Please model this.
Amino acid sequence: MASFFPTMETTLNYTDYIDSEQMACNMNIVWNFSRVFLPTLYSIVFIVGFVGNALVLCVLVKYHKRSKVTDVCLFNLALSDLLFLISLPFWAHYAAVSEWIFGSFMCHAVTALYMLGFYGSIFFMILMTIDRYTIIVHAHTSLFSKYRSVRASIVLILFTWALNLGASLPNISFSQVKNDTNGWTCGVEYPGIEWMSFSYIEMNVLGLIIPLSVMVFCYSRIVPILMTMKSQKKHKAVRLILVLVIVFFLFWTPYNIVLFMKVLHRLGYMNTCQWEQDLNMATQWVETIAFSHCCLNPIIYAFVGQKFRNLVLKLLKEWFPLCFVAV
Model:
């Protein structure tokens, strides 16, 4: 029996890196829980996230004639979230039926969607943070102003996608379909414990440490400047910044802590059956919390702005005029 978690060990067999004592560990409780919990939560995250991010893409494509760096970043952030979300129905089905029925090609494709969407969402969030930093902190610096052209933004986007692909490639390459004792499985088959540890640490560094550090540094410089402004909107902007940092920390920190504990477990620490069960049960909870962050991205980055909200309402009135008829 394989696990059903689309993490770095996506459906990796529990018996790959454990000793004979752990092989006797009964994981039926975890598997039975995952068959109900994961499909339900993945479906909710998929529906809510897909609608929100699709609206962002539609508004940006329809109403933004001239592409600015912020808009381009927001477009690619929503696109990354959509790629990530498209993979969730496949993982939900896999968890529900306990077997991969989509074949070898789709195993690679779904893993690619998941990994590219995962890292892409984080990388473009970092890029948007740096862009805001340059706008506010270095607003009068000609060097930064020159590099905020459309051509420069395209180069930045291509570089970010290349970085995204590089970070995702190991897991995409190592994913494969196997005919296990209980049916076909799709998972990441690492060539050794070193690669597995590297992948987990990579997610810790790229998925939490670097983005959180960038956000704290940039916004710690932005907030004092906003507070010196006489505009009444400054308090709203400061609150939004605090929400961005706090939400990112709350949603992603538990997930990365559990991933790090999994590395320690695979290396022989906390090497008991109870830890095996607790870590895999905890993974399902913290993973779903982290995944739901992509549902909040449209709200935090787009819908909180009055101008963007008006464009969303304008688009919805065009699509569903009967729903917006004045009573």
About this structure: The first helix runs from residue 20 to 23. Strands lie at 175-180, 183-188. Confidence is low (pLDDT under 50) at residues 1-5, 7-24.
